[in-house]
Amino acid sequence: MPIYAYQCTACGFAQDEMQKVSDALLTRCPSCGQAAYAKQVTAAGFALKGTGWYATDFKGNGGKPADPKPDTTPDSKPDTPAPAAAACPACN
């Protein structure tokens, strides 16, 4: 369940409240009883940092970034796709 920060505008009492998302907002201050208890806007409890989780997760590269430079050694051959017939032995 989410935790929301509330503060009373009448007496200044502040408290975190655990509520369901579907629950109605609290309005009665538990300290002074006034109907001035209001939900506060707060920062998120987590932050995504780094080069980006999307760049490394579920790619099978062990978390290493892809090499942006192509292989330019003189003995390397350019990649050529295989013919469609050779790609599927059951189709031959």
Give Rg in angstroms. Answer: 29 Å
Helix coverage percent of residues? under 10%
**Helix/strand order, N-terminal first:** EEEHH
Percent range for β-strand residues: 15-25%
Q: How would you write the strand order of the largest sheet?
A: 2-1-3
Q: Given the structure, what is the number of helices?
A: 2
Q: What structural category characterises the helix and strand content? A: mainly beta
| Major pleated sheet | 3 strands, antiparallel
Secondary structure tally: strands: 3
Poorly predicted runs of 5 or more residues: none
Mean pLDDT: 76
Instruction: Report the span from N to C terminus.
Output: 58 Å
Shape: elongated
